């Protein structure tokens, strides 16, 4: 029929594509779930820390960063909960143990020590989650989540800029990576047994080759 009536074939193909797109938009995969969960974790501790920064900061820059984070993460939290309800995802109800330790640390500071700890820790957290947002934006098949990732990207970038503008962000954030709540519980953050075995074999081959090479050079020199 499609050959006899090209218009019918085009319409049918278009209908199939539309149905496939709708099916993708009605489901979420493991990365989508991780994305929503990480944003939820971020909201759980950055909302109270944003409020604290707006109240306890000693400079206008720190207070602005805090009030902006409070406002933006409150909005993000509303959206995340709506999406979780729609897709049947159970969200965490409290920050991770690492985030709770950050809350205690920041809350224990006063004056400039507070400003420095607040800005440095929160900038580290935002920097870590920024990468996951980019992955979601580029790879999700769900248009609704793609649009949300675009919005989240803008927000996180704004927060990083404001935190950096305080002048209290250090150059080294490696030890603070856990703040974004991305853990080895997710498959992509684990090395499977096969990868480990392959890595071990490659290492052994390279090591043996190196030893043979060194011995050959030594033998050549002795002659």
Total domain count: 2
Largest sheet report: none
For this structure, the CATH topology of the largest domain is Ferritin
Helix and strand sequence: HHHHHHH
Helix fraction bin? over 70%
Distance between the termini: 83 Å
Radius of gyration: 25 Å
Q: Could you tell me the number of beta strands?
A: 0
* pLDDT < 50 stretches: 20-24, 183-208
Corresponding CATH architecture of the largest domain: Up-down Bundle
Number of helices: 7
Mean pLDDT: 79
Look at the helices and sheets and give the structural class: mainly alpha
Main CATH class of the largest domain = Mainly Alpha
What is the overall shape?
Answer: elongated
Tell me about this structure.
- By secondary structure, the chain is mostly helical.
- It has helices spanning 6-25, 30-56, 60-87, 97-107, 111-139, 143-164, 193-222.
- It has two domains: 29-190, Ferritin, core subunit, four-helix bundle (Ferritin, Up-down Bundle), CATH 1.20.1260.10; 191-223.
- It contains seven helices and no strands.
- α3 (60-87) runs antiparallel to α6.
- It is elongated, with a radius of gyration of 25 Å.
- It starts with 5 loop residues before the first helix and ends with a helix.
- Mean pLDDT is 79; it is low at 20-24 and 183-208.
């Amino acid at each position: 029929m499609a050959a006899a009536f090209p218009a019918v074939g085009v319409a049918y193909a278009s209908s199939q594509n539309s149905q496939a797109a709708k099916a993708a938009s009605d489901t979420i995969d493991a990365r989508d779930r991780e994305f929503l969960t990480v944003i939820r974790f971020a909201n759980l501790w950055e909302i109270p820390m944003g409020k604290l920064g707006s109240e306890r900061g000693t400079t206008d820059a720190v207070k602005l960063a805090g009030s902006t984070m409070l406002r933006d993460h409150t909005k993000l939290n509303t959206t995340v909960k709506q999406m979780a309800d729609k897709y049947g995802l159970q969200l965490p109800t409290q920050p991770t143990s690492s985030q709770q330790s950050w809350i205690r640390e920041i809350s224990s500071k006063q004056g400039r020590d507070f400003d420095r700890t607040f800005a440095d820790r929160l900038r580290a957290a935002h920097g870590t989650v920024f990468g996951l947002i980019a992955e979601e934006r580029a790879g999700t098949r769900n248009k609704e989540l793609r649009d949300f990732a675009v919005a989240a990207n803008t927000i996180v970038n704004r927060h990083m800029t404001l935190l950096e503008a305080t002048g209290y962000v250090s150059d080294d954030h490696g030890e603070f990576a856990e703040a974004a709540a991305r853990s080895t519980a997710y498959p992509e953050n684990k090395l499977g047994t096969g990868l480990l075995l392959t890595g071990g074999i490659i290492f052994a081959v390279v090591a043996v080759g190196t030893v043979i090479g060194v011995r050959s050079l030594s033998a050549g020199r002795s002659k």
